[in-house]
Each structure stands twice: as structure tokens, then as C-alpha cells.
């Protein structure tokens, strides 16, 4: 899978235009605040996911413009395809191969990419929400239907939480709570099963990458852990029963707190290095190596499931890694299309593009 052409009109500070990137390494360099990350963000949006920077649609539209239109020609599944996204105030519309799509969920899995930014280096030391987001985003590109499942689960959680807040003022509503308990348990079991299976593959792949980074001196382990004690999340019936029991057992506490304390929205990935939890006991170097291993594993798993490697987006991440980790990362990405942003070229080779004030200038090196 690779990008053949990217066109942007009215997107952030990028001057209207287009690029024809190399199928191998593409380096976008320039000073800070020139638009390099905007280009990476533009590419990422075609995965169907939200901005990896957490930006709203209106924030991605150039000042003074009513909309932004971005177009991607890419090679996937053995043929050239075309995706067009139109961003307006809080809305996005998609056209795939000249067919209008009802929602962005319908384009997930069409164009696959793995993005790695400096914020991802805090994946280990951040809270569980970041690691759940990492899992869900990775699974969505492999199984697009999973996005709808997660969205449905979130709607159930929101409905149950709203009911929990109303019950203290209307005690008769407590009798209706079990309906939402059963729905949440059934949907939650599906999500737990998918996450558990993905993390089993992640554990094998990330461990192998970490072994390479540490030259076999350290061992990385990852474990998916539910917050309600599910022993085998692949057994959906048993998992749903465990979650339902936990919801009922904690019901009084949930009413008091006004939110749901059981379910996959509270789960986590536990990362250990040499048997010790990396979040609490790992050095910064160890934590960064663990994140690097997990992101490389994400790309490897996605490539195996899709039958072709995803596009790799490295947003100013090389400057955050020491030379040995930089070399390891680039060697492992050999054979993939890679976009790298940086402030200085140093000895980087590839298709070089200089960005200045939102304008891209191609340079021969």
C-alpha cells in the first residue's frame, strides 16, 4: 500500500497544491510551525480516524475558508484507488472511487497507516485511556466493523451514565437500570474478545522487536487486563456474565458516583520489562523502546492481516530517539512507504521536500 498523489485545498496553513511522493522514504523538513505536521495529519485523516492531534474539523480548515478538500490517490489491493474528504464545520464527507459514503466508518480499512508522533512516546507513562485508544485504533484498521461496535458501546455507556445521574432524584428509574446492564455486558464482551486477541498478537510481535532493540538483554511483556476479572475474554458468554455480575454488584456505587465503573472502558494494557511494570519502574529509555516496539508491532500485524504493509507516518519522532533506536526503526521499516518530518536533514536519504510557510519545495539530494 502506498500514496501515489496527495492534493490539499484549504487545509490548515498548507498552500493549495499536491505532491507525488516516493514509494519508499519521503523526508519533509523545515523549521517549526511551517506545516510539516499538518501534512502528516492530512494523510492520517484518510484512514477514517480522527486527527491524531485531537483537532476538530473546524480547526483543520484554513483561516477565511468555509471548507477544506483533500484528495488521495493510492495503491491498495492491487489497484489504484481514490479518496476525497471534505471538511466543514464539525462534519466530514467522504467519496471513495467516485461513490459517496454515508459516513467515515465506511472508509475505515480502505487506506491503512500507522502514525508515530512524540506524544506516542508517552504511551507507557500515560493513563489507561491512551493505551485503550491505541488498541482500538489498531483493531479498527484490521476489522472496520469494530469501529461501529465501539461507537455502540459508547452510546450505551452514555445512556447508562445519564440514567445513573437521574436516579437519585427519581428512584423509580432504578428498576430500568438492568436493561442497560445487559446491553452493556453483551456489547462489552465483544470488545473484550477483540482486544484480547489483538493483544495476544501484539505480545508476540512487540516482544520480538524489543529483543532486537535491547540486543536480547531485556524482555518485554504486554498483557490485556479487564477491570472486572474476566479470565478468558475469548469466551464471550462467560465474559458477559462476569461483566453483568460486576455491574450489578457495583450498582449502588455507580449511582452514588454518577458513572459506570465496570467495563472495557476501564481496561488497560499492562507493559512489563524484565517482569517489572514499565510505567512505574522503567527508565525513560526503556519506556521509549517499549513504545517503539509496540508501534512497530502495530505496523507488522496490520501488514500481515491486510496482506500488504501500511503507510508509515513519523512526525518529528526521530529527533526524540537516540541514534541506535533511529537506525533500528528505519531498518525495520525497510520496504514500506515512509513519511518523515524533521527540522534538520542531517544524513537522511530519500525523496526530500522542504516546507516553508505551508509551501512544499521539492529538492534533489
Tell me the Rg in angstroms: 22 Å
Instruction: Kindly report how far apart the N and C termini lie.
Output: 25 Å
Low-confidence stretches: none
Calculate the mean pLDDT score and round it: 91
Q: What would your notes on this structure say?
A:
The protein is 39% helix and 23% strand. The protein has nine helices and 15 strands. Helix 3 crosses helix 4 and helix 4 crosses helix 8. The relative contact order is 0.17. With 365 residues, the chain is α/β, with parallel strands linked by helices. The longest helix is centred in the middle third of the chain and has 37 residues, at 177-213. The radius of gyration is 22 Å and the shape is globular.
SSE blueprint:
Elements lengths: L1 E8 L7 E3 L5 E5 L6 H10 L22 E9 L2 E10 L2 E6 L2 E3 L11 E4 L11 H15 L2 H22 L10 H37 L6 E6 L10 H14 L1 H7 L10 E6 L2 E2 H4 L2 H23 L4 E5 L7 H10 L5 E5 L8 E6 L2 E5 L2
Parallel strand pairs: 3-13, 3-14, 8-12, 12-13
Antiparallel strand pairs: 1-2, 1-4, 4-5, 5-6, 6-7, 9-10, 10-11, 14-15
Helix pairs in contact: 2-3, 3-4, 4-5, 4-8
Task: Give a short synopsis of this structure.
By secondary structure, the protein is an alpha/beta fold. 39% of the residues lie in helices and 23% in strands. It has helices at residues 36-45, 128-142, 145-166, 177-213, 236-249, 251-257, 278-281, 284-306, 323-332, and strands at 2-9, 17-19, 25-29, 68-76, 79-88, 91-96, 99-101, 113-116, 220-225, 268-273, 276-277, 311-315, 338-342, 351-356, 359-363.
Amino acid at each position: 500500500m502506498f500514496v501515489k498523489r496527495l492534493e490539499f485545498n484549504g487545509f490548515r496553513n498548507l498552500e493549495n497544491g499536491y505532491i507525488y511522493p516516493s514509494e519508499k522514504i519521503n523526508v519533509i523538513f523545515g523549521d517549526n510551525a511551517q506545516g510539516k505536521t499538518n501534512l502528516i495529519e492530512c494523510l492520517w485523516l484518510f484512514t477514517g480516524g480522527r486527527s491524531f492531534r485531537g483537532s476538530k474539523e473546524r480547526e483543520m480548515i484554513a483561516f477565511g475558508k468555509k471548507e477544506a478538500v483533500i484528495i488521495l490517490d493510492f495503491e491498495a489491493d492491487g489497484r489504484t484507488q481514490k479518496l476525497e474528504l471534505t471538511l466543514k464545520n464539525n462534519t466530514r464527507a467522504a467519496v471513495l472511487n467516485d461513490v459517496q459514503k454515508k459516513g467515515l466508518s465506511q472508509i475505515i480499512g480502505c487506506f491503512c497507516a500507522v502514525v508515530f508522533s512524540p506524544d506516542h512516546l508517552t504511551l507507557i507513562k500515560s493513563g489507561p485511556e491512551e493505551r485503550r485508544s491505541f488498541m482500538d485504533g489498531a483493531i479498527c484498521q484490521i476489522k472496520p466493523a469494530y469501529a461501529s461496535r465501539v461507537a455502540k458501546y459508547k452510546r450505551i455507556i452514555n445512556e447508562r451514565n445519564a440514567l445513573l445521574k437521574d436516579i437519585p432524584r427519581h428512584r423509580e428509574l432504578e428498576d430500568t437500570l438492568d436493561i442497560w446492564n445487559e446491553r452493556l455486558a453483551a456489547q462489552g464482551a465483544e470488545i473484550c474478545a477483540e482486544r484480547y486477541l489483538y493483544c495476544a498478537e501484539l505480545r508476540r510481535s512487540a516482544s520480538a522487536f524489543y529483543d532486537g532493540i535491547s540486543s536480547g538483554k531485556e524482555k518485554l511483556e504486554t498483557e490485556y487486563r479487564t477491570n472486572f476479572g474476566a479470565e478468558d475474554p475469548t469466551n464471550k458468554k462467560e465474559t458477559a456474565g462476569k461483566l453483568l455480575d460486576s455491574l450489578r454488584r457495583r450498582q449502588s456505587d455507580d449511582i452514588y458516583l454518577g458513572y459506570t465503573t465496570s467495563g472495557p472502558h476501564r481496561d488497560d494494557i499492562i507493559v512489563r520489562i524484565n517482569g517489572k511494570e514499565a510505567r512505574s519502574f522503567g527508565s525513560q529509555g526503556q519506556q521509549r523502546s517499549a513504545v517503539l516496539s509496540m508501534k512497530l508491532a502495530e505496523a507488522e500485524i496490520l501488514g500481515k492481516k491486510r496482506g500488504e504493509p501500511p503507510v508509515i507516518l513519523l512526525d518529528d519522532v526521530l529527533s526524540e530517539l537516540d541514534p541506535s533506536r533511529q537506525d533500528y526503526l528505519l531498518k525495520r521499516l525497510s520496504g514500506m512507504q515512509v513519511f518523515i518530518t524533521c527540522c534538520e536533514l542531517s544524513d537522511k536519504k530519500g525523496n526530500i521536500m522542504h516546507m516553508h510557510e505551508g509551501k512544499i519545495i521539492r529538492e534533489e539530494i
